[in-house]
Amino acid sequence: MIATQQVGDALDREAKKRLVDYGNDLLDKLEELRHGLLMGAIPKDKLIAMAQMVRSRRDHIPDPHLAELLNDIELRVEVELAKLSARILKARAAIERTEARFRARRARRIRVVKIPSLR
To answer: Is the pTM of this model over 0.70?
Structure first.
């Protein structure tokens, strides 16, 4: 019975260690997110990785308050991804408009030159 308790305690310590490591990783990601927000640019791959990290462990969290906090983090990440996608679409549209104007100006500059016949 004592051996069973010791094994259970070791498993509890290991589970707590994994949760602490996960929490520290998550705090590091949140710090990166905060820094990116302050700088005005967050790499899309970091946002996607963070959302996946939160999703992958959320179901294994026994504490309902922590689970709610993870839901809030995931929501924030998804909002930032949506904003980033909107900015990317807006930038692409602006690039396409600029390219169309450039092609139009270029077409106006090209003139057809008639070569006189030698007859």
So the answer is: no
